[in-house]
Specification:
By secondary structure, this protein is mainly α. Among the domains are: 48 residues, no CATH class; 96 residues, no CATH class. It contains nine helices and six strands; from the N terminus they run E-E-H-H-H-H-H-H-E-E-H-E-H-H-E. The strands form three sheets. The chain has a two-stranded antiparallel sheet with strand order 1-2. The longest helix is centred in the N-terminal third of the chain and has 26 residues. This is RNase H type-1 domain-containing protein.
């Protein structure tokens, strides 16, 4: 309730009681959590008791820890978290230093190290190395962007968009929609599906030209697959190598 605008002595409804109730619930949960956190520092309690105070089932927290541990096991060896969870090397012993100064203090393991120890060690997945062609390919663009676009549009007049022509005879016509993906990924998948359709309708001696208006995607299709959509690039290269006469 709040004072009215016309009459200050009259109380009117503010129509925000539902918002106040929501804020009240959030504040109650926050106060309950902060109070239990302060109690944990003053009087340590078992973890199960802390989970009970926060109203979070312990099985949910345990499943999240297992998932995070599996994520740690699947990281590349050069990842920063791998160095933090790897066992520390033994300290070197120097005869010129007294032994009492070389005694290491056993520090408690961090939460990250304890989570990593939930699952046994396993072989980490190896990243697919970049593939480089034995023959040096020509540059994709040798002129200015305007001259390249003009030449491409002149060439495109002989190759109608959406038409599949073989020996001056139309074979198929139409277009389709790709699945939801980013622009870079969609162009890689589109090039792969277009090459698959062209190979299905062509012979082994047919020359296939794949046109991509994205210089980065064209570079990846020619032999340097990017980390994004790497599967589409490698499949494209395998199909192009199997057919033999594919130009990007």
């Amino acid at each position: 309730m709040a004072p009215g605008t016309g009459n200050a002595t009259r109380l009117v409804s503010t129509q925000i009681k539902h918002l106040v109730d929501r804020f009240d619930a959030v504040l109650r949960h926050a106060i309950r959590r902060s109070s239990s956190h302060l109690e944990d520092h003053a009087h340590p309690r078992p973890p199960s008791r802390s989970w009970y105070s926060t109203r979070i089932p312990s099985i949910l927290l345990e499943s999240q820890r297992i998932r995070f541990s599996a994520r740690l096991k699947s990281l590349d060896v050069r990842h920063l978290l791998v160095a933090r969870t790897s066992p520390k090397p033994a300290r070197a012993y120097h005869s010129s230093i007294k032994r009492k100064f070389l005694v290491e203090r056993r520090s408690q393991k961090t939460r990250l190290e304890r989570t990593n120890a939930l699952l046994p060690n396993c072989a980490r997945p190896a990243m697919l190395p970049r593939q480089y062609s034995d023959a040096e390919a020509g540059p994709l663009q040798t002129a200015t962007k305007a001259d390249t676009a003009e030449g491409f549009l002149a060439w495109l007049k002989d190759a109608a968009i959406g038409n599949l022509i073989r020996n001056e005879q139309p074979i198929a016509h139409g277009s389709g929609r790709l699945g939801p993906a980013e622009v870079f990924d969609a162009e890689a998948v589109g090039a792969l599906e277009g090459l698959q359709a062209a190979i299905a309708a062509a012979t082994n001696t047919t020359s296939i030209v794949v046109c991509i208006d994205n210089l980065a995607v064209a570079t990846c299709l020619r032999g340097n697959p990017a980390d994004s959509s790497q599967d589409a690039f490698t499949k494209f290269q395998d199909l192009a190598k199997a057919h033999g006469d594919v130009e990007v």
